[in-house]
Amino acid sequence: MSENDAVVPLPTSTPEMIQPILRRAWRADNPTGEQAGKYKPVLLIGPPGVSKSAQVEQFARDNGMIYIPVYLSYNTFNDIKGFGVPDRDPNSDTFERMIWYRDAVFPDSDCDKKYLVFWDELFNANASVIKVAQQAVLERMIGEYKFPRNTMMVAAANGQKHHCQSSRAPASVMDRFSIYQLEPSIKGTLDWLMDNAQTEYVYGFLQAHNESLYCDNMDKWDGEQAQSTSRSYTKLDQLLTTYSDPSEMVATDNTRLFKADVCGCIGAKAGQEFVTFVQLYATCGDVGELLADARNCDLRRIVERPDLKYIVASKLVTLAEKDNLSDVLLLSHRLTDPNLNSPEDLESMESMVGNRLRRKRKDLSTERALIEWQLKHKGELLK
User: Fold this and answer.
1) Are 209 and 307 a contacting pair, CB within 8 Å?
2) Residue 63 near residue 114, CB atoms below 8 Å
3) Please, are residues 66 and 60 in contact by the beta-carbon 8 Å criterion?
4) In this structure, are residues 154 and 56 in contact, taking their beta carbons and an 8 Å threshold?
5) CA 223 to chain centre
6) What is the SS3 assignment for 17?
7) CA 186 from chain center: how many Å?
8) What CATH number was assigned to the domain covering residues 3-182?
């Protein structure tokens, strides 16, 4: 094959593009109209933990669909195809045919509700399972069973380069999917954490260390440790809620266990960086003292260190109360603009703190300082 004949890779998509992709596919497919089943089903191919399933489930929920996930890697042929039973004619001693009892998760064919069936890990399953799943996705049927007319089919898979033991798909099948190659997105992960994180540590860490998401070289992966994926960080955030504060995490008698916990969630390389971040978090000084003089306190040491800036910003979210809210927002602005040279601009640290407060601190949502902050920056917030 000459250089000009080489396969051109697909352009990459990011997780935040999944829902727009699905919206267009749903309209083109028109499940309740004459075009039902005519449009190529969407197939999302990407590394593990990139939020494929989370985005598809969110799309189903937002559009009033009943979400049915089917994880093919741990399903058997009979789980998908059903169980064959002889259909004996009561007037004959011979078996006339076989009938198949399908899984109860699949709805009746004549049901008029809206469904989204998500066929995940399409190329990780046993070959016989893959064949049945392909018929389900591409033909909207399994044997004689037909899915309801208003059913949307979406599939996902890991690529061969992702070390997930994925099989190679035949070209005859791939020609019938609309295929999107996904790559990790720090923006999508941070957006999710902004709305859903239960602690401030993971969000602040990833803001300061963007390179830590999917940081490990998969070609050198030892096959024995967790990957630094979006999914891994959401699980780490949940784990950290079991600690009362950073000082407990890095206490002398707990350091070894804490490091094992973190590395067990996000892998050794990113895990060590996170432990260092939390150690710095626990020892960076009393942010309460900075708040006591938010307008004039000395921030020179902090603003020169990106990790320290995000640590202080994270602490400000946890320290915010009704009586100090104005100072919290002022100090968060000064983390990027210490001399208040551009007080009208929405700066990165201020954006992080203000948006986290308005989304997660419902107890402060009616406070004048936060309302005025949102009105002041409404142009940026509405983009």
Assistant:
1) yes
2) yes
3) yes
4) yes
5) 22
6) helix
7) 10
8) 3.40.50.300
